[in-house]
Structure formats: structure tokens, C-alpha cells
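Data deposition worksheet. Section B asks for the primary sequence of the deposited chain exactly as it was used as input, without tags or linkers unless they were present during the calculation. Section C holds the resulting structure in C-alpha cell form. Section D is free text for depositor observations; keep each observation to a single sentence. Incomplete worksheets are returned to the depositor.
Section A, Depositor: J.P.
Section B:
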Amino acid sequence: MNNRNRHTNSRCRSGIWMAVVAVVAVLQASGLLAADSQDSITIYSSARPGGIPASLYLPSQGAGQYRGAQVPGFAVVRHLRQYDLAKGEQLLRVMDVAASIDPTTVAFRSLSKPDTRVIEQSFEFDLVSMDKLLQRYLGQVVVVEQLRGESIDEFTGKLLGTTGGLMLQDDSGAVVTLNHYQNIRFPSLPEGLISQPTLVWKLDSPAAGSQDIEIAYQTNNMTWWADYNALLSTQDGACRMDWSAWVSLVNQSGASYGQARLKLLAGEVRRAQPASSAMAKESVAMLRMQVEEGFAEQSFNEYHLYTLGRPIDVPDNATKQVELFPTSRAIPCQKHLLVNGSPGFFGGQQLSDAFVGATDVDVQVHYQFSNDKQSGLHVPLPAGRVRISELNQADGELEFIGEDSIGHTPRDETVRLHTGSAFDIKASRKQTDFNIDSRARELTESWEIEVRNRKSTAETVLINENLFRAANWNITQSNQKYSKLNSNLIQFEIQLPAETVRTVTYSVRYTW
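Section C:
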């Protein structure tokens, strides 16, 4: 066995690293490194608002936990590169593409020479690793470095196996096994293995010289969602809300994008649509918002497109937040305390006496406002999660009071937020009478809803009652006025002075 000892103060050479560096240099030379570049990214999201917990995208041992999983979204990436091409047929290698690329969506276009065409296209993703190198070098000579005290021994021999350690055979036929070693030096990188995913084109160029090349493709493992912060103020009995919006980006595509033009598309986009429609050039002028370098919003097809007014770095394996639009202040809002009665029973239980005794019901806390010009907002709101806080007048600190999510909300629509349940206002429902006559196709029942205000201030409570048993109904008795909201929903509005208990009773007759 050929071995050689040297001191650790000499520089430790890594065979893998040297081979990788050498091959990368060759590939960069053959790929004709771009002198100038410009990236553009349009990100599409299928994430459910508020449906991505932080534990899924926070890093784990230096890598995002989403790596290798399906991030709920995708992106259309456009690279503008400058390459020096020869005349005639040649290979062009592009290495800085996303590892999660869908190679069937790749589009190539020469802006300088439109006659430059792609004859063949392939996506190579057989990436180099220790296991692949060892497998490729079985039966070939390698050099293994092993630390012994303050020195390093080198063993040179034919690699016979890698199970349970390394087995080497020297020129004399002697075999040695190595279970602990520092480095392995390989003569070169085996053909077919590459250091990063690479697009390879066989091109036919009509002339030699520098050309501006546009590359576009779809990649998975990118998504975005909107995060809203609502600051509630209820001083002097007036409900006001400051509303700010942020965009959260997750990039697990396997590529970083430096100083890229960023666009976000809000809306439900089917992936079955042709990729070319998503990569078409936008010709509609952007509608600028209050901050020149913030997001500009435009209607695009049946969706809304948000374009950031400045370049941005989108690193791989990272989560990033960007302000969507400036804070809108003092938006008028309304607070509702809501008691939701029976949600309805169907399929065999619709006509049964399914209620026994009293049932406690949560008194839900809701806030709402109009997304209109009068409110001071009046912008399309992408679906996202809303965190609501209120200023504690006692100590001047913000306190979190609830969280909800909203769907895509156009201008002039109402935003409704459910923040939780009231602590000092309680309610209960009790069925007090039930009769059914199947032959006469008639059912009657009576209800009693008790609401208890244990606060030192007066409140207004809304009670929704779902009349679900049959399409034909009429209220035969009620001790409170009610409003008919739709074909099977009525609402009572009751005023509750401080430290007061109120009871609503009604009877309903169904026919079918």
C-alpha cells in the first residue's frame, strides 16, 4: 500500500473541491458567462390565507423545512442575459436556474438576433455528491487522507467498496479498510455529474457576437401571501382602525434572484392554462400608489397584479417580507357582538327533536369596515391573514386581541373580521316546545335565548337564528322585533344595559 505522511500545518487539499472548482470553471467558460443580467419574477400563490404556520418555513439546521416538499405556489422566472455566441451550431450552458424548474415550460428568445434558434434543449440535474462520486470511482484509483495524531497519512489505491468504510487495494494487491478519514481526492469529476442544475441548449446562430438572450420558465416551490396588521382604537366610543399590509415571500426554488423585478399575482389561477399566457408581456400602464418604490397595482385579466417599484433580492431558502402599501389610518369600523344559533341539521335530523335542555353559545366579537373611498383605503386586498391589536390606554402598549383571514377582497366590498369570543357576555339557547304532525306536514317549536351582560358598560348584541327545518315558515310569536336576513335566517338586535340579563323568545311554524 502506498502511503505518505505529512504535517497538519500544511494546507489540507480536498479532492472533491478541486475537481468541482475545475469543472465549474470549464462549464462557465463553455457557457460563456453573462456580462449583464436582469431577472424578473412573477409569483403565483395557492396558499390558503393563514394556512401556513411559521414552523413550516422557518429554517431547520440551515435549510428550510419546505425543501423537497410542495410549497403552495409557483413562479414564472425571466432571465435577461448577454452571451457571446459563435456563428453556427454550438452548445450553451446556463447554470443559474432554479432547481425546481419545470423544464417543459422553458422558452428561449434572442432579442439581438431573432433568427438564433434552439435545435435541442435538455435540463441536466445529476448533481455531484459524495455517494455519487464514490459509486462512479469504484474500481479506480483514489487518494484518501487520514488524520493520525498531528499528522495526516495518505493512502493511494483502487477503490473496491464503500459499505462499512472504504476498501482500497494497492499495486501489490494488498487491501486496507479505512473507517475514519478526512478527505478523498478524486482525479477529476466524472462525466455527467454537475455542481448545479443546468439548462443546455444546442443553438444555431446566424452570426458571431454578443447577443441579449431572454430565458423564461416556471418553477415550483415559491409562494407569497399577504399579512395585514390592524390597529384598533375604540376611544370615545368610536371604532377606528389603522390598516397596514405586508407581503411574505417564500423561496425554496433552488435559486437566488439578485436585484430582480418582482410581481405578485392575486387570484385563483389554474395551472392548466398555457404557460405562454402567463409569460406574455404586460402592456397595461401601472397605476402608481402613494410610495413610488412600493407596489403598484393593476387589473390584469381577471386578476390583480402587484409590481414592486424597485429591484429586490430574493435569496434561495429564505422568507422575506415587503410592504404591500402604506398604512391607511383611522378607517371607520363597526363592532358587532354576535350570537349564532343553530347552524342547521340535515339528512334525517332535519325534522327530529335533537335539542334537550339549555346549551351555552359563544358570543362572537366581530369588526367590519368598508373598503371604499370614504374609508380612506379603496385598494384591492389580496387574500391573507389579519392580526388585530389594540392600544391599552392604561400603559400605552399594544396588545394582540385576535386573528382572522380574509379572501381576495375587491374595492367597495366589506371586510369582516372575527377576533374571538366575549369574556363578560354570555348566552344560552333552550328549546321550550316541539310538536310535529307528519300527516299534516306541519312542525312547530319554540326557543328561548338568554343573553347576560356582566360588564359595567351597555352593549348591543345581535342574535342570528337559522330556521332550517323547512323552506316554508312563519314566526307565530316573538317578544322582540326581528329582521329577515335571507330565506331562512332572522336576526334580533337587543340592547343590554350594564349588569343586565335579557331573554328573547319566539315560536315558529313550518309547513312542507
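Section D:
Helices lie at 15-31, 54-57, 130-136, 275-278.
The mean pLDDT is 80.
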